[in-house]
Amino acid sequence: MTAAQTRAASGEALLRVRGLNAFYGRIQALFDIDFDIAPGCVTTLLGANGAGKTTTLRALCGMIPTKGDIELDGVNIGGRATEDIVSLGVAHVPEGRGTFIGVTVEENLRLGAMTRRDRREISADIERMYQLFPRLAERRAQQAQTLSGGEQQMLAISRALMLRPKLMLLDEPSFGLAPLIIEELFETLSRLKTDEGISMLIVEQNAALALEIADHAYLIETGRVVMSGPADEIGRDESIRRAYLGY
Amino acid sequence: MELFIHQVLAGLATGGIYACIALAIVMIYQAIHHLNLAQGEMAMFSTFVAWQLIEWGMPYWAAFVLTLVLSFAAGVAIERIVFRPLHNAPVLSHIVVFIALFSIFNSAAGFIWDFTIKSFPSPFGSQPLFEGAPVSAHDTGMFGVTFVLLILLFLFFRFTRVGLAMRAAAVNPESARLVGIRVGWMVALGWGMAAAIGAVAGMLIAPVVFLEPNMMLSILLYGFAGAVVGGLTSPAGAVVGGFIVGVVENLAGSFIPYIGQELKLTIALALIVAVLMVRPSGLFGSRLVSRV
Amino acid sequence: MPSTLAARFKSLRQIPAKPREVPLSWSRIALIAGLVLAVTLPFVVKNFVIFQLTMVLIYAIAILGLNMLTGFNGQFSLGHSAFYAIGAYTTAILMEIYGFDFYLTIPVAALICFAFGFLFGLPALRLEAIYLALATFALAAATPQILKSTPLSPWTGGVQGIYVLKPDPPFGLPVNSDQWLYFLTLGIGLVLAVIARNLIDSRSGRAIIAIRDNPIAARAMGVDIALYKTLVFGVSALYAGIAGSLSAVVVQFVAPDSFTFVLAIALFVGLVIGGVGSIPGAVIGGLFLVFVPNFAEEISKGLAGAVYGAILILVIYAMPSGAAGLVRMLVAKLAGRSR
Predict the structure, then answer these.
(1) Which of B171, B178, B182 is opposite residue A101, by nearest beta carbon?
(2) CB contact under 8 A, A83 and B177
(3) Residue C10 binned pLDDT confidence (cut-offs 50, 70, 90)
(4) Interface residue of A108, A111, A119, A171 to substitute, partner B, most B CBs within 10 Å
(5) Nearest Cβ partner of A111 from B168, B233, B288?
(6) Which residues of C touch B174 (CB under 8 A)?
(7) Which end of chain C is more exposed for a tag (fewer CB within 10 A), N or C?
(8) Closest chain B residue to A109 measured between Cα atoms?
(9) Which residues of B are less than 8 Å from A61 in CB distance?
(10) Residue C67 in contact with residue C322, Cβ under 8 Å?
């Protein structure tokens, strides 16, 4: 890659990650990771259990100590506090959905808009979420922990959308859900991409599912990026499929 | 029967004291998931500050409000200065720091204001509520203030943005950070509120038990009892629990022959353990399920 | 349990079961040096200091018991003063009312405390961390009241308490009675420490620690959680009771107000300062309990409590995992450098 190409790429990228290292205590979990996310695109991180996918998402949000450059829209967010990164427009749908127990569905949505000040717009967005996920509308006054797994995942995604994020990070959205629910969920995600142009970074165990919706894919192994390319190419490559994706 | 009713009313009057302090305990438990052993001493210290302000000639309600503001600020400061550096330390170390604070406030109050008993004014007056009533005007006022406080807290947590953020930070700090809530400040705010509520409790209790550095020792224990009986997750439960403890203590004292009076405390404490046996999260507490 | 609570209590679980990071040869040298010091000290210091050192060892024994419960089994107690009191009163009553020989009262106190601990462990089974802390704290608060109460006062002497006579050194040993009690306590303490170490290292010890670290997995492996938890409570109370029994003759006096919740909290502080999950740490905890309050009083009489509190906070800042944690960290650093 020439210098000019790099600059062009960085000019386009919504998120530009260079030389990202992350640590759990004294143990290094990520090694010099580089990747880009183009605006309006869905990018996916694939890899086996423990490869460092979740760690990458946590690193992007400043939830663990990192070294390296993370630029969001040209602003370096590496080393910043999670709360600051969130208020710059990064919404994270964490592993296990991060449901707030003892808090109603509607309050969960309001929490998603915690960094926003535009009251009227917030209420309008809540209604929009109810249109997107009608099942949440039925349960708006219910405590969030009483929802089913699929509903909690929908709630987590709509809570993230309430931020009006520039970039949405999703950690294993299909985890623990029934196949029908997964299908419904990914349909919604792809609608969000095409209709609203929301940029996403999705971490998935279920590679086939992720590659279907993604534009670009990165393969991670033991904390390093081992391969990257357009999602359809990665998905077509027989040897990658067999070696890394296991289907 | 008349004696019984009389004792129940008198129990409710003391129960009001416990309810007040139990409410402060639950408040801080909501914010930090710890029982602050120094809570009573902090309340005692706040009450001394109010007493000093009144001594200097400030009108009661002005001193009351100023004390609340000072206590709130002190609560926030304690969290930011003392506890923030420790947020990764083991839970047992936190308890030791509570013990240290207990010792510091108790000793400092004794040093500044000495250990002689002082009387503290009541804004409601100490006369009986009506001719021959077992409860005084002050008891009734205390009940009223506790009730108003409870409603204000309910409204705050239910309908305000900051209240919602505090709840979120308490139940799931990691997730709260991910929606942009400054969890550290929410905890500090919880400390400030608990300190202020404790100050209210102290100022309401002081006219009944008199002001001195050790005034809170047993009251705090009854407050804990009330909070636990009611359930640590429920502010209203804590208030009810406080009243229950007050009534049981009083009834045990007058109706259990021989040992009742001497072992009031023991009986009240046995009650807590008994309640916990049957309902491990208190009468009104919600059972939170832990995941493996 | 909300995630914060779970996360915070997890920090308790991260205490290593056996601090093996300290090289064996070093810890053996430290142990021998400590023993030599412990044996020679009573011949060079004044009787009052011997008394203080004996109290250090007595507290260390009680802290050791608390450590078995909290450090290795993960159960909280802010109420060990109650068992300490039962031990002390057992000895005092047996000696002064029933004319027992002091040495016979120690095993009796130990057994009675074991029984009480075991019984208290039964309801404790139903209580989760913070509620157990409160229930035990309540026990500590109720103890002096119960001791003072009229039905018990024929034996306990009520508020007045009981004076206890110090036993003379046996077999015509060339030591005075303070020195004798010191060596007796040291000997008992060492035996109890060895028993504790062997218990923790045994199969049962692994079960006890497994219950702390992952009760569900422990149950799945067939560990009888209820039995182990109550037994550990009993053993822990037994240690506290022996400490109390020794204290009765060393202090020569038992009274209800010597066994308030302040003592329970002091033992807890000693546990944390010494190091949760560390057997030698108990001695550090004992030293802290005896000497730091005196030191604070020397700095300022009027503000002794405040100075003590400030020292406590500073110590926690310096070593959030106690003295044992600090040693472990230093050893790890030194080892890292030499590598």
Answers:
(1) B171
(2) yes
(3) very low
(4) A111
(5) B168
(6) 3
(7) C
(8) B179
(9) 178
(10) no
Contacts 24+ apart (CB under 8 A), A137-140: A139/A105, A140/A104, A140/A105, A140/A106
pLDDT in tens, C16-63: 444 445 566 777 888 888 888 888 888 878 888 889 999 999 999 999
Whichever domain contains A171, its CATH number is 3.40.50.300
In CATH terms, is domain B2-122+138-278 a member of 1.10.12? no
Residue (of C76, C169, C87) closest to C131 by Cα position: C76
Say how far apart CA A164 and CA A158 lie, in whole Å. 10
B119 vs chain C: nearest CA distance in angstroms? Answer: 23
* Of the candidates C77, C72, C10, C16, the residue with the CA atom closest to the CA atom of residue C267: C77
- Kindly report the CATH number that applies to the domain delimited by C23-338: 1.10.3470
Backbone angles phi, psi at A67, to 5 degrees: -130, 150
Per-residue DSSP letters for C177-210? HHHHHHHHHHHHHHHHHHHHHHHHHSHHHHHHHH
Q: Is A66 helix (H, G, I), strand (E, B) or coil?
A: strand
In angstroms, rounded to a whole number, what is the distance separating the alpha carbons of residues C102 and C335?
A: 48
Neighbours of chain A (3+ CB pairs under 8 A): B
A-to-B residue pairs, Cβ atoms closer than 8 angstroms: 64
Has residue A183 been placed in a domain?
yes
CA distance B103 to B98: 9
Q: What is the dihedral of CA C288, C294, C299, C305, to 10 degrees?
A: 80
C-chain residues near B173 (CB < 8 A) = 3-4
Distance from CA of B286 to the nearest CA of A (A): 9
The Cα C147–Cα C159 span in angstroms is 8
Can you tell me the ipTM of this complex? 0.86
CB contact under 8 Å between B176 and A102, yes or no, is no
Contacts of C157 (CB under 8 A, 6+ apart): C255
What are the extents of the domains in chain C? Answer: 23-338
Nearest residue to B40 (alpha-carbon basis) of B225, B184, B169, B283: B225
Gap from A84 CA to chain B (nearest CA, Å): 7
- Is a pLDDT exceeding 50 seen at residue B291? no
Question: Could B178 and A99 be called an inter-chain contact, meaning their C-beta atoms sit closer than 8 Å?
Answer: no
Determine whether the interchain pair C271/B92 forms a contact, defined as Cβ–Cβ distance below 8 Å. yes
Q: Where are the domains of chain B?
A: 2-122+138-278
Residues of B in contact with A102 (CB under 8 A): 167, 171, 233, 286
How many domains in chain A?
1
User: Model confidence at B259, in pLDDT bands (50, 70, 90)?
Assistant: low
Low-confidence ranges of chain A (pLDDT < 70): 1-11, 244-247
The 10s digit of each residue's pLDDT in C93-128 is 888 888 788 888 999 999 999 999 999 888 878 777
Q: What is the SS3 assignment for B89?
A: coil
Residue ranges of chain A whose CB lies within 8 Å of a chain B CB: 61, 63, 82-83, 86-87, 91-92, 94, 98-103, 107, 110-112, 114-115, 159, 163
